[in-house]
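INFO batch 0412 | record 1 of 1 | parsing
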Amino acid sequence: MAEQQLGGGIANAGQVVRVGPHVLRPSSPYSGSIHAFLLAVKAAGFEGAPIPVGIDEDGRERLVFIDGEVPVAPYPDWSQSGTALASVARLLRGLHDAAHRFDPQGFTWNDSLADPAGGTLVCHNDVELSNVVFRDGIAVALIDFEFAAPGRAIYDVAQLARLCVPIEDDFDQARIGWRRSDRPARLRLVADAYGLDRCGRAELLTAMNDALARIEAAAWRSIDAGGSNAVARMNRAGGIEKFDRRRRWWTAHYDQFAAALL
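INFO prediction complete | emitting tokens
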């Protein structure tokens, strides 16, 4: 069958294709661990993740294609709705509930975005809109588990909030296609839909700091390791200065987010 290129992605942009009922994408040293995890959450009753088929002779991993809409920047209005956001948070909760049955020991994981505090629950760590499949405006599946690694559930929720509230300076929010919104209210919506109690909401604020620091550190590591190509990718994504803008914006609005979570 002919290969149909699928959009989205950063590191694997242009290399992810659909062939009939399957998706083919570059494998990694962690694909075996990710496949074991995906099969485990499927066995635990979670239907919102790809089912792995295996690794092809050409080194690409093969997964069952999930039909639906995957928004990419600039994000369509429907994907920025409160209904869409709440459905993503509920879907992540479903993944975490199923993941409790999986023991990550003995497997290797990509720790680029992993929770700095560590943990035993395998998390997605990169729940952004282009890694979510929607049907009729409701999230039905998470895809691209490239950065999955053990950590804390609350850190995964913080990464979701960072990417989907989003936690961004106004300039960068507009640059990547997010419309203006009440972002403290959107963070509260994430907490409500996921089911965080009072203690969990306090932990979410702390985990937000961890998530912001982790993605910045990962960006610097990428630049140090990748040279001019990594710098070019970073410049296309807003430049390294966006991390300073994001940090200043979060600090300036922290009290508003804390109040919204009460």
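INFO post-check: Residues 70 and 133 are 5 Å apart (CA to CA).
INFO record closed
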